[in-house]
Amino acid sequence: MYIVTAKEMYGIDHYTMQELGVEGKLLMENAGRAICLKLENLIEKTSRICVIAGSGNNGGDGFVIARTLLNNNYHVHVVQAVPDEKITGDALYHKNLYKNCGGTVTVIKEAEIIRELVSDADIIVDAMVGIGIRGKLREPLAGIVRFLNQTEKFVVSIDIPSGLPADEGLTDFTAVEADCTFIVGAPKTSAFLEHSASFYGEWEMVSIGFPPLALRKYSKRMLWNEGNFQESMPKRKLNSHKGDHGRGLVIGGSTEMPGSIAMSVKAALKAGSGLITAATTEKVIQMIAPVSMESTFLALSEKNGYLANHTFPVDSYDAIAIGIGMGRYEETRDLVRYVLEQAKCPVIIDADGLYHIKSDLSMIKKRSDPTIVTPHPGEMAMLLDISVPELLKEPFRYAAEFAGKYNVYVVLKGKYTIITAPDGRQAVNTTGNPGLAKGGSGDVLTGISLAMAMQDQSIFEALCNACFIHGKSADLLVANEHSFYDLLASDVIKGITDVYRTFS
Protein backbone atom coordinates (compact mmCIF):
# COMPACT_ATOMS: atom_id res chain seq x y z
CA MET A 1 0.00 0.00 0.00
CA TYR A 2 1.45 3.33 -1.07
CA ILE A 3 1.35 6.70 0.73
CA VAL A 4 0.91 9.79 -1.44
CA THR A 5 1.16 13.54 -1.40
CA ALA A 6 -1.53 15.65 -3.05
CA LYS A 7 0.69 16.16 -6.10
CA GLU A 8 1.36 12.45 -6.40
CA MET A 9 -2.35 11.69 -6.12
CA TYR A 10 -3.11 14.08 -8.95
CA GLY A 11 -0.39 12.37 -10.98
CA ILE A 12 -1.96 8.97 -10.37
CA ASP A 13 -5.39 10.35 -11.31
CA HIS A 14 -4.05 11.91 -14.50
CA TYR A 15 -2.11 8.78 -15.51
CA THR A 16 -5.13 6.54 -14.95
CA MET A 17 -7.43 8.78 -16.96
CA GLN A 18 -5.15 10.08 -19.71
CA GLU A 19 -2.71 7.21 -20.23
CA LEU A 20 -5.00 4.27 -19.48
CA GLY A 21 -8.25 5.80 -20.64
CA VAL A 22 -10.33 5.29 -17.48
CA GLU A 23 -12.94 8.05 -17.33
CA GLY A 24 -13.15 10.27 -14.26
CA LYS A 25 -16.86 9.54 -13.98
CA LEU A 26 -16.05 5.84 -13.58
CA LEU A 27 -13.40 6.46 -10.92
CA MET A 28 -15.91 8.59 -9.03
CA GLU A 29 -18.55 5.87 -9.35
CA ASN A 30 -16.07 3.27 -8.11
CA ALA A 31 -15.14 5.45 -5.12
CA GLY A 32 -18.72 6.12 -4.09
CA ARG A 33 -19.80 2.50 -4.42
CA ALA A 34 -16.75 1.16 -2.57
CA ILE A 35 -17.35 3.59 0.28
CA CYS A 36 -21.02 2.62 0.45
CA LEU A 37 -20.06 -1.01 1.01
CA LYS A 38 -17.99 0.11 3.99
CA LEU A 39 -20.57 2.60 5.19
CA GLU A 40 -23.33 0.01 5.28
CA ASN A 41 -21.42 -1.74 8.06
CA LEU A 42 -21.93 1.37 10.22
CA ILE A 43 -25.59 2.05 9.54
CA GLU A 44 -28.96 0.37 9.76
CA LYS A 45 -31.91 0.53 7.38
CA THR A 46 -33.59 2.96 9.76
CA SER A 47 -30.56 5.28 9.86
CA ARG A 48 -30.96 8.80 8.54
CA ILE A 49 -27.91 9.95 6.59
CA CYS A 50 -26.99 13.48 5.65
CA VAL A 51 -24.30 13.93 3.00
CA ILE A 52 -22.68 17.38 3.02
CA ALA A 53 -21.25 17.84 -0.47
CA GLY A 54 -18.83 20.40 -1.81
CA SER A 55 -17.34 20.88 -5.24
CA GLY A 56 -14.73 18.82 -7.08
CA ASN A 57 -14.07 15.12 -6.75
CA ASN A 58 -14.90 15.01 -3.05
CA GLY A 59 -18.36 16.43 -3.65
CA GLY A 60 -18.82 14.10 -6.64
CA ASP A 61 -18.02 11.12 -4.43
CA GLY A 62 -20.66 12.40 -2.03
CA PHE A 63 -23.33 12.44 -4.72
CA VAL A 64 -22.47 8.87 -5.75
CA ILE A 65 -22.70 7.76 -2.12
CA ALA A 66 -26.05 9.50 -1.73
CA ARG A 67 -27.45 7.95 -4.93
CA THR A 68 -26.23 4.46 -4.02
CA LEU A 69 -27.72 4.66 -0.53
CA LEU A 70 -30.96 6.05 -1.93
CA ASN A 71 -31.24 3.23 -4.45
CA ASN A 72 -30.64 0.76 -1.62
CA ASN A 73 -33.64 2.20 0.24
CA TYR A 74 -31.80 4.22 2.85
CA HIS A 75 -33.09 7.58 4.04
CA VAL A 76 -30.56 10.06 2.66
CA HIS A 77 -30.46 13.78 2.01
CA VAL A 78 -27.74 15.95 0.44
CA VAL A 79 -26.78 19.36 1.76
CA GLN A 80 -24.76 21.26 -0.84
CA ALA A 81 -22.29 23.56 0.87
CA VAL A 82 -21.27 25.50 -2.28
CA PRO A 83 -23.28 27.42 -4.93
CA ASP A 84 -24.65 25.51 -7.92
CA GLU A 85 -22.12 27.07 -10.29
CA LYS A 86 -19.29 25.42 -8.31
CA ILE A 87 -20.57 21.94 -9.16
CA THR A 88 -19.13 21.13 -12.59
CA GLY A 89 -17.73 18.28 -14.69
CA ASP A 90 -17.94 14.77 -13.29
CA ALA A 91 -19.38 16.03 -9.99
CA LEU A 92 -22.26 17.69 -11.84
CA TYR A 93 -22.86 14.50 -13.82
CA HIS A 94 -23.26 12.52 -10.62
CA LYS A 95 -25.34 15.22 -8.95
CA ASN A 96 -27.81 15.02 -11.83
CA LEU A 97 -27.89 11.22 -11.64
CA TYR A 98 -28.70 11.46 -7.95
CA LYS A 99 -31.51 13.95 -8.59
CA ASN A 100 -32.84 11.88 -11.50
CA CYS A 101 -33.15 8.96 -9.08
CA GLY A 102 -35.37 11.07 -6.83
CA GLY A 103 -32.73 12.52 -4.56
CA THR A 104 -33.10 15.90 -2.89
CA VAL A 105 -30.46 18.61 -2.56
CA THR A 106 -30.56 21.62 -0.25
CA VAL A 107 -28.13 24.40 -1.16
CA ILE A 108 -27.01 26.52 1.78
CA LYS A 109 -25.26 29.88 1.88
CA GLU A 110 -24.83 30.28 5.65
CA ALA A 111 -23.27 27.81 8.05
CA GLU A 112 -25.92 28.33 10.74
CA ILE A 113 -28.54 26.55 8.64
CA ILE A 114 -26.65 23.27 8.85
CA ARG A 115 -27.72 22.76 12.48
CA GLU A 116 -31.37 22.49 11.49
CA LEU A 117 -30.74 20.43 8.35
CA VAL A 118 -28.87 17.68 10.21
CA SER A 119 -30.96 17.76 13.37
CA ASP A 120 -32.60 14.39 12.65
CA ALA A 121 -29.54 12.74 11.04
CA ASP A 122 -27.86 9.72 12.62
CA ILE A 123 -24.83 9.81 10.34
CA ILE A 124 -23.20 12.82 8.70
CA VAL A 125 -21.02 12.20 5.65
CA ASP A 126 -18.37 14.89 5.11
CA ALA A 127 -17.75 15.20 1.35
CA MET A 128 -17.03 18.92 1.26
CA VAL A 129 -13.34 19.40 0.53
CA GLY A 130 -10.70 16.97 -0.71
CA ILE A 131 -6.94 17.12 -1.08
CA GLY A 132 -6.96 20.26 -3.20
CA ILE A 133 -7.37 22.72 -0.34
CA ARG A 134 -5.09 25.76 -0.37
CA GLY A 135 -4.94 27.67 2.89
CA LYS A 136 -7.61 27.79 5.58
CA LEU A 137 -11.28 27.13 4.90
CA ARG A 138 -13.54 30.07 4.23
CA GLU A 139 -17.16 30.54 5.24
CA PRO A 140 -19.59 28.87 5.14
CA LEU A 141 -17.35 25.76 5.06
CA ALA A 142 -15.35 26.85 8.10
CA GLY A 143 -18.55 27.33 10.07
CA ILE A 144 -19.88 23.93 9.03
CA VAL A 145 -16.63 22.34 10.16
CA ARG A 146 -16.87 24.06 13.55
CA PHE A 147 -20.40 22.72 13.93
CA LEU A 148 -19.38 19.18 12.97
CA ASN A 149 -16.61 19.25 15.56
CA GLN A 150 -19.12 20.19 18.26
CA THR A 151 -21.88 17.75 17.35
CA GLU A 152 -22.23 14.36 19.00
CA LYS A 153 -23.43 12.81 15.74
CA PHE A 154 -21.22 10.25 14.01
CA VAL A 155 -19.17 11.94 11.29
CA VAL A 156 -17.65 10.04 8.36
CA SER A 157 -15.18 11.86 6.11
CA ILE A 158 -14.57 10.90 2.51
CA ASP A 159 -10.91 10.53 1.45
CA ILE A 160 -9.69 13.18 3.89
CA PRO A 161 -11.38 15.24 6.61
CA SER A 162 -12.45 18.55 5.05
CA GLY A 163 -9.94 21.31 5.68
CA LEU A 164 -7.07 18.98 6.51
CA PRO A 165 -3.96 19.32 4.30
CA ALA A 166 -2.90 16.13 2.56
CA ASP A 167 0.78 16.96 2.92
CA GLU A 168 3.23 17.64 5.73
CA GLY A 169 4.50 21.09 6.65
CA LEU A 170 1.16 22.77 7.42
CA THR A 171 -0.15 23.23 10.94
CA ASP A 172 -2.47 26.23 10.69
CA PHE A 173 -5.80 24.78 9.54
CA THR A 174 -9.40 24.20 10.56
CA ALA A 175 -10.52 20.66 9.76
CA VAL A 176 -13.22 18.13 10.49
CA GLU A 177 -12.40 15.85 13.40
CA ALA A 178 -13.92 12.72 11.90
CA ASP A 179 -14.99 9.62 13.75
CA CYS A 180 -13.84 7.62 10.75
CA THR A 181 -12.49 8.29 7.27
CA PHE A 182 -12.69 6.19 4.14
CA ILE A 183 -9.53 7.06 2.22
CA VAL A 184 -9.74 6.79 -1.56
CA GLY A 185 -6.99 5.11 -3.57
CA ALA A 186 -4.03 5.62 -1.25
CA PRO A 187 -3.42 7.05 2.24
CA LYS A 188 -2.27 10.65 2.33
CA THR A 189 0.85 11.80 4.16
CA SER A 190 -1.09 13.68 6.83
CA ALA A 191 -2.53 10.39 8.12
CA PHE A 192 0.91 9.68 9.62
CA LEU A 193 1.81 13.02 11.18
CA GLU A 194 1.57 13.62 14.90
CA HIS A 195 -0.40 16.87 14.57
CA SER A 196 -2.90 15.68 11.95
CA ALA A 197 -3.38 11.90 12.21
CA SER A 198 -6.09 12.15 14.87
CA PHE A 199 -8.38 14.14 12.55
CA TYR A 200 -8.95 10.98 10.49
CA GLY A 201 -10.36 9.01 13.42
CA GLU A 202 -10.37 5.33 12.51
CA TRP A 203 -9.55 5.08 8.83
CA GLU A 204 -9.78 2.49 6.12
CA MET A 205 -8.59 2.59 2.54
CA VAL A 206 -10.87 1.78 -0.40
CA SER A 207 -9.57 0.76 -3.83
CA ILE A 208 -11.19 2.38 -6.87
CA GLY A 209 -9.21 0.95 -9.76
CA PHE A 210 -5.85 2.73 -9.77
CA PRO A 211 -3.34 0.28 -11.29
CA PRO A 212 -0.31 -0.67 -9.14
CA LEU A 213 1.88 0.64 -11.98
CA ALA A 214 0.53 4.15 -11.44
CA LEU A 215 1.04 3.99 -7.69
CA ARG A 216 4.62 2.77 -8.07
CA LYS A 217 5.32 5.39 -10.71
CA TYR A 218 4.31 8.36 -8.60
CA SER A 219 5.05 7.42 -4.99
CA LYS A 220 8.24 6.54 -3.12
CA ARG A 221 6.42 6.02 0.17
CA MET A 222 4.60 2.90 1.29
CA LEU A 223 2.93 1.32 4.28
CA TRP A 224 4.85 -1.72 5.48
CA ASN A 225 2.28 -4.26 6.57
CA GLU A 226 1.93 -7.98 7.13
CA GLY A 227 1.76 -8.66 3.41
CA ASN A 228 5.11 -6.93 2.86
CA PHE A 229 6.61 -8.85 5.78
CA GLN A 230 5.35 -12.21 4.51
CA GLU A 231 6.62 -11.49 1.00
CA SER A 232 10.10 -10.20 1.86
CA MET A 233 11.07 -12.09 5.03
CA PRO A 234 13.60 -14.79 4.07
CA LYS A 235 12.55 -18.41 4.65
CA ARG A 236 14.92 -20.62 6.64
CA LYS A 237 16.45 -23.52 4.74
CA LEU A 238 16.21 -26.91 6.40
CA ASN A 239 19.96 -27.46 6.09
CA SER A 240 21.03 -23.98 7.23
CA HIS A 241 23.62 -23.48 9.96
CA LYS A 242 24.52 -20.63 12.30
CA GLY A 243 26.99 -19.14 9.85
CA ASP A 244 24.20 -18.61 7.33
CA HIS A 245 22.37 -16.21 9.60
CA GLY A 246 25.04 -13.77 10.54
CA ARG A 247 27.73 -13.06 13.07
CA GLY A 248 26.84 -9.80 14.77
CA LEU A 249 28.58 -7.51 17.22
CA VAL A 250 26.85 -5.25 19.75
CA ILE A 251 29.08 -2.55 21.27
CA GLY A 252 27.85 -0.62 24.28
CA GLY A 253 26.82 -0.86 27.88
CA SER A 254 28.21 0.72 31.03
CA THR A 255 28.08 0.16 34.77
CA GLU A 256 25.07 2.47 34.99
CA MET A 257 23.26 0.96 31.98
CA PRO A 258 24.09 -2.74 31.68
CA GLY A 259 20.53 -3.75 30.78
CA SER A 260 20.50 -1.90 27.48
CA ILE A 261 23.15 -4.01 25.79
CA ALA A 262 21.71 -7.16 27.35
CA MET A 263 18.32 -6.47 25.74
CA SER A 264 19.88 -5.70 22.35
CA VAL A 265 21.88 -8.92 22.44
CA LYS A 266 18.93 -11.06 23.50
CA ALA A 267 16.67 -9.45 20.89
CA ALA A 268 19.23 -10.05 18.14
CA LEU A 269 19.47 -13.71 19.08
CA LYS A 270 15.72 -14.15 19.44
CA ALA A 271 15.14 -12.49 16.05
CA GLY A 272 17.32 -15.06 14.31
CA SER A 273 21.00 -14.11 14.40
CA GLY A 274 23.42 -16.98 14.08
CA LEU A 275 26.05 -15.65 16.47
CA ILE A 276 26.13 -12.51 18.62
CA THR A 277 29.06 -11.04 20.52
CA ALA A 278 28.59 -8.39 23.21
CA ALA A 279 31.54 -5.99 23.36
CA THR A 280 31.44 -4.16 26.67
CA THR A 281 33.29 -3.68 29.95
CA GLU A 282 34.40 -6.59 32.11
CA LYS A 283 32.02 -5.53 34.88
CA VAL A 284 29.05 -5.41 32.53
CA ILE A 285 29.94 -8.82 31.13
CA GLN A 286 29.78 -10.25 34.64
CA MET A 287 26.39 -8.61 35.13
CA ILE A 288 24.72 -9.74 31.90
CA ALA A 289 26.37 -13.12 31.24
CA PRO A 290 23.83 -15.04 33.37
CA VAL A 291 20.94 -13.73 31.22
CA SER A 292 22.78 -13.81 27.87
CA MET A 293 24.05 -17.37 27.89
CA GLU A 294 23.75 -17.84 24.12
CA SER A 295 26.06 -14.92 23.31
CA THR A 296 29.82 -14.58 23.41
CA PHE A 297 31.65 -11.66 24.99
CA LEU A 298 34.48 -9.31 24.19
CA ALA A 299 35.91 -7.31 27.10
CA LEU A 300 36.85 -3.74 26.21
CA SER A 301 38.85 -1.14 28.10
CA GLU A 302 36.93 1.05 30.52
CA LYS A 303 37.27 4.31 32.38
CA ASN A 304 35.07 5.04 35.39
CA GLY A 305 32.65 2.33 34.34
CA TYR A 306 32.32 3.46 30.73
CA LEU A 307 33.88 2.15 27.54
CA ALA A 308 37.21 3.71 26.68
CA ASN A 309 39.02 4.01 23.37
CA HIS A 310 40.05 0.54 22.32
CA THR A 311 41.17 -0.98 19.06
CA PHE A 312 40.10 -4.52 18.20
CA PRO A 313 39.34 -6.43 14.99
CA VAL A 314 35.94 -5.61 13.52
CA ASP A 315 36.38 -7.22 10.12
CA SER A 316 35.03 -10.64 11.07
CA TYR A 317 31.44 -9.50 11.67
CA ASP A 318 28.52 -9.35 9.25
CA ALA A 319 26.90 -6.37 11.00
CA ILE A 320 27.57 -4.18 14.03
CA ALA A 321 25.36 -2.18 16.39
CA ILE A 322 26.96 0.52 18.50
CA GLY A 323 25.91 3.14 21.01
CA ILE A 324 23.49 1.32 23.31
CA GLY A 325 24.04 2.48 26.90
CA MET A 326 27.67 3.41 26.22
CA GLY A 327 27.70 6.93 27.65
CA ARG A 328 28.71 10.28 26.22
CA TYR A 329 32.36 10.62 27.11
CA GLU A 330 35.23 11.59 24.83
CA GLU A 331 36.68 8.11 25.00
CA THR A 332 33.46 6.53 23.81
CA ARG A 333 33.30 9.01 20.92
CA ASP A 334 36.72 7.82 19.79
CA LEU A 335 35.47 4.23 19.90
CA VAL A 336 32.50 5.11 17.68
CA ARG A 337 34.79 6.82 15.19
CA TYR A 338 37.15 3.83 15.14
CA VAL A 339 34.33 1.39 14.38
CA LEU A 340 32.85 3.56 11.64
CA GLU A 341 36.25 3.91 9.98
CA GLN A 342 37.28 0.27 10.26
CA ALA A 343 34.09 -1.76 9.82
CA LYS A 344 33.42 -3.16 6.33
CA CYS A 345 29.85 -4.18 7.04
CA PRO A 346 26.50 -2.56 7.94
CA VAL A 347 26.71 -0.49 11.14
CA ILE A 348 23.68 0.50 13.19
CA ILE A 349 24.12 3.62 15.35
CA ASP A 350 21.70 4.11 18.22
CA ALA A 351 21.31 6.01 21.48
CA ASP A 352 24.60 7.54 22.71
CA GLY A 353 26.23 6.64 19.41
CA LEU A 354 23.99 9.25 17.75
CA TYR A 355 25.22 11.86 20.21
CA HIS A 356 28.81 11.03 19.30
CA ILE A 357 28.42 11.38 15.53
CA LYS A 358 26.73 14.79 15.90
CA SER A 359 30.06 16.61 16.29
CA ASP A 360 31.37 15.22 12.98
CA LEU A 361 28.74 13.83 10.65
CA SER A 362 31.40 13.31 7.99
CA MET A 363 32.33 10.08 9.77
CA ILE A 364 29.10 8.51 8.48
CA LYS A 365 29.15 10.22 5.10
CA LYS A 366 32.56 8.76 4.27
CA ARG A 367 31.48 5.15 4.73
CA SER A 368 30.95 2.97 1.67
CA ASP A 369 29.14 0.19 3.54
CA PRO A 370 25.57 0.69 4.78
CA THR A 371 25.10 2.91 7.82
CA ILE A 372 21.84 2.96 9.77
CA VAL A 373 20.82 5.59 12.32
CA THR A 374 17.85 4.88 14.59
CA PRO A 375 16.86 8.13 16.34
CA HIS A 376 13.72 9.02 18.23
CA PRO A 377 12.43 12.55 17.45
CA GLY A 378 14.60 14.21 20.09
CA GLU A 379 17.75 12.59 18.72
CA MET A 380 16.79 13.35 15.11
CA ALA A 381 16.18 17.00 16.01
CA MET A 382 19.58 17.06 17.70
CA LEU A 383 21.30 15.71 14.58
CA LEU A 384 19.54 18.32 12.43
CA ASP A 385 19.98 21.28 14.82
CA ILE A 386 16.24 21.97 14.83
CA SER A 387 13.49 21.77 17.42
CA VAL A 388 11.34 18.67 17.90
CA PRO A 389 8.16 20.55 16.80
CA GLU A 390 9.93 21.57 13.59
CA LEU A 391 10.89 17.97 12.93
CA LEU A 392 7.42 16.58 13.62
CA LYS A 393 5.90 19.15 11.27
CA GLU A 394 7.80 17.57 8.33
CA PRO A 395 9.31 14.25 9.42
CA PHE A 396 9.25 12.66 5.96
CA ARG A 397 11.13 15.55 4.38
CA TYR A 398 13.72 15.86 7.12
CA ALA A 399 14.38 12.11 7.21
CA ALA A 400 14.75 11.96 3.42
CA GLU A 401 17.08 14.96 3.28
CA PHE A 402 19.31 13.58 6.05
CA ALA A 403 19.41 10.12 4.48
CA GLY A 404 20.32 11.53 1.08
CA LYS A 405 22.89 14.03 2.33
CA TYR A 406 24.82 11.54 4.48
CA ASN A 407 24.12 8.36 2.48
CA VAL A 408 22.52 6.59 5.44
CA TYR A 409 19.38 4.69 6.28
CA VAL A 410 17.20 6.47 8.84
CA VAL A 411 14.77 4.76 11.18
CA LEU A 412 12.87 7.67 12.71
CA LYS A 413 11.06 6.07 15.64
CA GLY A 414 7.59 7.06 16.81
CA LYS A 415 3.93 6.10 16.67
CA TYR A 416 4.42 5.97 12.91
CA THR A 417 8.04 4.89 12.51
CA ILE A 418 9.44 6.14 9.19
CA ILE A 419 12.15 4.07 7.50
CA THR A 420 14.11 5.98 4.86
CA ALA A 421 16.72 4.76 2.36
CA PRO A 422 19.50 6.96 0.92
CA ASP A 423 17.77 6.90 -2.48
CA GLY A 424 14.63 8.50 -1.03
CA ARG A 425 12.41 5.43 -0.63
CA GLN A 426 10.34 5.59 2.53
CA ALA A 427 8.08 3.23 4.43
CA VAL A 428 5.84 3.66 7.45
CA ASN A 429 5.52 0.77 9.88
CA THR A 430 1.95 -0.28 10.66
CA THR A 431 2.52 -2.20 13.90
CA GLY A 432 3.04 -1.17 17.51
CA ASN A 433 1.08 0.37 20.37
CA PRO A 434 1.52 2.66 23.41
CA GLY A 435 2.95 -0.22 25.41
CA LEU A 436 6.23 0.37 23.57
CA ALA A 437 6.61 3.78 25.22
CA LYS A 438 8.98 2.30 27.80
CA GLY A 439 12.69 2.36 28.49
CA GLY A 440 14.48 -0.39 26.61
CA SER A 441 12.10 -0.59 23.65
CA GLY A 442 14.64 1.10 21.40
CA ASP A 443 17.37 -1.28 22.55
CA VAL A 444 15.19 -4.22 21.56
CA LEU A 445 14.52 -2.70 18.14
CA THR A 446 18.26 -2.23 17.61
CA GLY A 447 18.86 -5.90 18.34
CA ILE A 448 16.12 -7.02 15.96
CA SER A 449 17.47 -4.65 13.30
CA LEU A 450 20.93 -6.13 13.70
CA ALA A 451 19.55 -9.62 13.16
CA MET A 452 17.52 -8.57 10.12
CA ALA A 453 20.48 -6.76 8.53
CA MET A 454 22.34 -10.07 8.43
CA GLN A 455 19.61 -12.04 6.65
CA ASP A 456 19.14 -12.52 2.92
CA GLN A 457 17.23 -9.32 2.18
CA SER A 458 18.02 -5.74 1.28
CA ILE A 459 18.91 -3.33 4.10
CA PHE A 460 15.71 -1.38 3.45
CA GLU A 461 13.60 -4.53 3.70
CA ALA A 462 15.57 -5.62 6.76
CA LEU A 463 14.81 -2.41 8.62
CA CYS A 464 11.15 -2.44 7.60
CA ASN A 465 10.82 -6.03 8.78
CA ALA A 466 12.63 -5.27 12.04
CA CYS A 467 10.16 -2.49 12.83
CA PHE A 468 7.25 -4.74 11.85
CA ILE A 469 8.44 -7.60 14.11
CA HIS A 470 9.07 -5.22 17.02
CA GLY A 471 5.61 -3.66 16.82
CA LYS A 472 3.80 -6.90 15.99
CA SER A 473 5.27 -8.56 19.06
CA ALA A 474 3.87 -5.76 21.21
CA ASP A 475 0.49 -5.97 19.48
CA LEU A 476 0.18 -9.72 20.02
CA LEU A 477 1.26 -9.43 23.65
CA VAL A 478 -1.30 -6.71 24.40
CA ALA A 479 -4.02 -8.63 22.58
CA ASN A 480 -3.37 -11.85 24.50
CA GLU A 481 -1.83 -11.31 27.92
CA HIS A 482 -0.53 -7.81 28.61
CA SER A 483 -1.80 -4.23 28.73
CA PHE A 484 -0.28 -0.96 27.52
CA TYR A 485 0.70 -0.30 31.14
CA ASP A 486 2.55 -3.45 32.16
CA LEU A 487 4.24 -4.35 28.85
CA LEU A 488 8.04 -4.33 29.23
CA ALA A 489 10.82 -4.29 26.65
CA SER A 490 11.89 -7.73 27.85
CA ASP A 491 8.36 -8.98 27.15
CA VAL A 492 8.70 -7.78 23.56
CA ILE A 493 11.78 -9.97 23.14
CA LYS A 494 9.81 -13.01 24.27
CA GLY A 495 6.93 -12.04 22.00
CA ILE A 496 9.09 -12.36 18.88
CA THR A 497 8.31 -16.08 19.09
CA ASP A 498 4.61 -15.47 18.45
CA VAL A 499 5.37 -13.18 15.49
CA TYR A 500 7.39 -15.91 13.82
CA ARG A 501 4.72 -18.51 14.60
CA THR A 502 2.33 -16.51 12.41
CA PHE A 503 4.93 -16.32 9.62
CA SER A 504 4.56 -18.89 6.86
Structure write-up:
The chain has 504 residues and is of the alpha/beta class. The chain folds into two domains: 2-219, 3-Layer(aba) Sandwich (Rossmann fold); 246-501, Ribokinase (UDP-N-acetylmuramoyl-L-alanine:D-glutamate ligase, 3-Layer(aba) Sandwich), CATH 3.40.1190.20. It contains 19 helices and 20 strands. The chain has helices at 6-19, 24-39, 56-71, 89-100, 113-117, 141-150, 212-218, 226-232, 258-270, 282-288, 330-342, 352-358, 362-365, 377-384, 388-393, 395-406, 441-453, 459-480, 489-501, and strands spanning 2-3, 48-53, 75-80, 105-107, 123-127, 154-158, 180-184, 202-206, 221-224, 247-252, 275-281, 296-300, 302-303, 306-307, 319-324, 347-349, 371-373, 409-412, 418-420, 426-429. The strands form three sheets. The chain has an eleven-stranded mixed β-sheet, with helices on both faces. A seven-stranded parallel β-sheet has the order 4-3-2-5-6-7-8, covered by helices on one side. β15, α11 (330-342) and β16 (347-349) form a beta-alpha-beta unit. α1 (6-19) packs across α7, α9 crosses α17 and α9 (258-270) packs parallel to α19 (489-501). It is elongated. The mean pLDDT is 95. In the C-terminal section; belongs to the NnrD/CARKD family. Belongs to the NnrE/AIBP family. This is Bifunctional NAD(P)H-hydrate repair enzyme. Homotetramer. Its EC number is 4.2.1.136, 5.1.99.6. Residues 225-503 form the YjeF C-terminal domain.
